[in-house]
Design goal:
Helix content is 45%, strand content 21%. It is an alpha/beta fold.
Amino acid sequence: MKKVLAILLAIAMIAAMAACAQKAAPADETKTSGETTSTAGETVDNTADDTADTASSESYKIFLITMDQMDQYWTNIDAGCKKAAEELGNVEYQWTAPDVKDDAKQIEMINNAVANGANAILLAVNDALKEASAAGVQIVYVDSPANFTPSVATFSTDNTAAGKTAGQTMIDQLAAKGITEGKIGIVSVNAATASTVARDDGFRSAFEGTKFELQESQYCDGDAARSKDAASAFIADGCVGVFGCNEGSTVGVGNAIKESGADVVGVGFDSSDNVLELINEGCLYATMVQNPDVMGYEGVKAAVAALQGGTADGAVTDTGVTVVTK
């Protein structure tokens, strides 16, 4: 049986990101898929029907293996995977991950999934990606693509564009307060995480041509407590706005603003119950919410299509963000 490794690649060592709510696949995408299936059914002959029935009746084992189980972001990807598996009807799906981020434990889980007959694995990044590519395994990227290997397809957020949206959101809110200049702080994960680096770059690009002074980004590995300390330092230094590049950073920024009582505009990235509570309390102005459930949903569909011999054109789909405010 042909096997596909579908890689859920979060280039960061910690991808602390979450979505506000579990959303179904966009109605237009679902409708288009339905119409395509219907049209194919009307045009193929009996031989093609028999082939399709054989392919669709074959069962596939698909595993989602994330860095950890701590963030709601992973839960929402799991929800999308489950939805696709239920719709397809021929997928035995399972989500597994270490309780905390541990590369050795994660690699052991990958080996266990392969030993248990996995046909496809949606995986958070580690060295197994290079090994899979060297072995000629096909790859579907979900969340963030790598640069060193081809793929069947990619379903991810355009983080640069989303970061710019976050920056413009902050600029607009500052303008509404009559503020057109001042210091802006940024709390991020690290300098090696592609997704958050892209958000940082996009955020900064929104301020080009303004009188605002963007400070050096502070890296806290997505840890909420450390992010709070970094944001508190920005606030003490007189920053009029602070941006958090992921869920943990966003919670830290919101808690710092809450504790200080300062009139600072906080904008974040991703969502969780804590983030939404901080927005409702007025401690954060807005957050950029991704669609991880859609990534998981489309990722499983693409993996099964590849397993059944579908065309792999490497298409990149931006699953987008929504600006959530109070």
